[in-house]
Amino acid sequence: MTITITAFERSPDGGKGLARDMRVRWALEEVGQPYEVRLISFANMKGPDHLAIHPFGQIPTYEEGSLVLFETGSIVLYLAEQHAGLLPRDSNARMRAITWMFAALNTIEPTILELTTAKILEGDKPWTEERLPLVKDRIRARLDKLSAHLGVSDWLDGAFSVGDLLMVSVLLRLRMSGILDEYQNLAAYVARGEARPAYIRAFAAQFAINAQDRTQV
Amino acid sequence: MTITITAFERSPDGGKGLARDMRVRWALEEVGQPYEVRLISFANMKGPDHLAIHPFGQIPTYEEGSLVLFETGSIVLYLAEQHAGLLPRDSNARMRAITWMFAALNTIEPTILELTTAKILEGDKPWTEERLPLVKDRIRARLDKLSAHLGVSDWLDGAFSVGDLLMVSVLLRLRMSGILDEYQNLAAYVARGEARPAYIRAFAAQFAINAQDRTQV
Question: Smallest CA–CA separation between B215 and chain A, in Å?
Fold first, then answer.
């Protein structure tokens, strides 16, 4: 059955791999599943056809036969459950890997989203310069703990898992801010994720679309 | 095997049911599992014993024999997988319910956390009065879509599921702001959640601790 995901026709990040389809592409590459991509314009993302499969009018979505999903967390969990390679077989270790998925999306990412919001949506506000250090310190409060947990390990809990896939993806959003480089072990952790062949293939696939787009402009 | 969760010795919300142990208590009541509670002080939450089971030094945690979990999303997913009542049997419907869990925690809750942060951590800042309307409008942008999806349905996708449990829990954080009441169907949806016998039992259990605490002060 063909797998089809959606992605931005023109990614706001210009192909840096920060759009959320990257997380799904990476998971698909890790489990060795081919997929097709349907590109969506910003206008069509808010149209009735797309809202019917994604109630919040965002990307990515996942379609496979009669199964239609949104939310990257759900999509990568589904892929990890269906195919070998992203979840341990031991039931306790499996739940711990899933715990790290939620930690990435609900404990770490919200603090990082605040920084993105502050820069992109409130970048022109008079308070932003004074407020940014507070936002960054709240990120550091979480990364202090994450860094202490990771220590000298390669991955968060044993072998690479879907928890690492999401945590690396979330931390990548910090690179431009310089905060990631304040944590040597976290920066190395992210680099290990980026060095995985599956990540490299997924990154190239999303970059090709945006590179193509730039030559058309 | 005994299930033990952790909760605040003294909840910052004074028993309003907004602390995250409430989500786990509710799930445990929905699936009919008895549990014990270990109360933790703020000082001990950041100590080595608790950090060993919760790397971010928060509550709740979940212990059952050799299984030790943190992250409410992961804990309630585990309970929903182990016991009947919170996930549909049909495999596609099951994944859609899980999708709503992630939507609650990664699409809706981050915008609501920004409001909590603005009020509690930045309440004394000179920019907060002017900034709050922007934060609230970002919440409304998400609730517009959520409300449109829910329409006149009782629950987000068929029967009550773990996705509704988390979405109601997340939306409850908005009650004090008045924003929830701008959406009649979402306010009714939350009220339906609160009216469930399992919710009522879970609420009473967490309230008893905090009421007891108040008589001691």
Answer: 33
Verify that B66 and B162 share a domain, yes or no. Answer: no
C-alpha span between B196 and B45 (Å, rounded)? 31
Checking if the pLDDT of A217 tops 90, the result is: no
Strand partners, B56: none
Q: Kindly state whether residues A138 and A168 are assigned to the same domain.
A: yes
d(CA B216, CA B206): 16
Cβ separation B67–A109 shorter than 8 A: no
Q: Tell me the pLDDT tens digit for each residue of A130-157.
A: 999 999 999 999 999 999 999 999 999 9
Is residue B127 within 8 angstroms of chain A, CB to CB? yes
Cα distances from A161 to residues A3, A193, A195, in angstroms, run 21, 11, 15
Q: Give yes or no for B113 touching A (CB within 8 A).
A: yes
CA distance B38 to chain A (A): 20
Q: Are residues A76 and A28 in the same domain?
A: yes
CB pairs under 8 A between A and B: 119
- Identify whether residues B116 and B211 lie together within a single domain: no
Pick the residue of B106, B128, B129 with the most A CBs within 10 A to test the interface with A by mutation.
B106
Phi, psi of B186 (to 5 degrees): -75, -40
Q: Is there a contact between B56 and A106 if contact means CB atoms under 8 Å apart? A: no
A65-124 pLDDT per residue, tens: 999 999 999 999 999 999 999 999 999 999 999 999 999 999 999 999 999 999 999 999
Q: Do B102 and B184 lie in a common domain? A: yes
What is the ipTM metric for this complex?
0.96
Q: Is the same domain home to A141 and A48?
A: no
Helix (H, G, I), strand (E, B) or coil at B4: strand
Domain count, chain A: 2
Give the residue numbers spanning the domain of A119.
91-196
Q: The CATH number of the domain where A128 resides is what? A: 1.20.1050.10
Cα–Cα dist A147/A194, whole Å = 18
Q: Does A82 touch chain B (CB under 8 A)?
A: no
Binary contact (B99, A126; C-beta < 8 A) = no
Distance CA B150, CA B192 (A): 13
Q: CATH code at A62? A: 3.40.30.10
Answer yes or no: do B192 and B95 share one domain: yes
CB contact (8 A) between residue B130 and residue A134 = no
Q: How far is CA B65 from CA A92, B3, B52, in A?
A: 10, 8, 16
Q: Do B110 and B184 belong together in one domain?
A: yes
